Amino acid sequence: MATHRVPQRDFHGLEVRRYQAARLFAAGRETQGAIARRLGVSRQSVMRWYRAWRQGGREALRAAGRAGRKPRVTPAQLAEIDVALRQGPRAQGFRTSLWTLPRVARLIKRLTGVQYHPGHVWRLLGTLNWTVQRPAKRAKERNEVGIRHWIRTRWPAVKKTLGGAAPGSSSRTRAASRRAPRSAARGRHGAKHPC
Q1: Is residue 89 part of a domain?
Q2: Does 55 lie in the same domain as 92?
Q3: Which domain holds residue 92?
Q4: What is the per-residue pLDDT across 72-128, written as a single tens digit (0 to 9) for each?
């Protein structure tokens, strides 16, 4: 799974900026547009802050806390899931040693009681720094001894070497020569057409 990191917002910094706006509102010397330019925010944000400040004072501009929905799985449960994943699928009762999203979703449900759709499990795995690992596909009939023998004996004869190739030519009528000067004549696309 590719690690998916959402940029963290600086909630304290945002709150400090709103408090700066409150001080400027109280001073009453600048317009809302000037305050927006000074703080580097949109005028709509300053207008929204001003309405909140007029209704509730400086406290109305206090940070609301975390953004978004609270996580369904606690950090302790995430650690438990990580330990179970590291033990491997066979240790968790699966027949093969390959983690799939549906298997991880079943594991999470069994350990925490929280049901995730398999399509959303990758986000949770991203927070645990798990990445996609695809197994190497090899034929069951693979003959390792025969492959090693072929590489040792046949491959050197088949393999092209840099020095073994003669200089080539794109001309059908003239063989390439290292001593022959390059033709300065224009090719078909560069030639002038008779009018």
Answers
A1: yes
A2: no
A3: 75-127
A4: 898 999 999 999 999 999 999 999 988 999 999 999 999 999 999 988 899 899 889
Q: What angle do CA 100, 101, 106 make, to 5 degrees?
A: 100
190, part of any domain? no
Please check whether residue 188 lies inside any domain of the structure: no
Residue 56 sits in the same domain as residue 79:
no
Q: How many domains does the chain have?
A: 2
CB 93 within 8 A of CB 106: no
| Residue 33 pLDDT level (bands cut at 50, 70, 90) | very high
User: Does residue 25 belong to any structural domain of this protein?
Assistant: yes
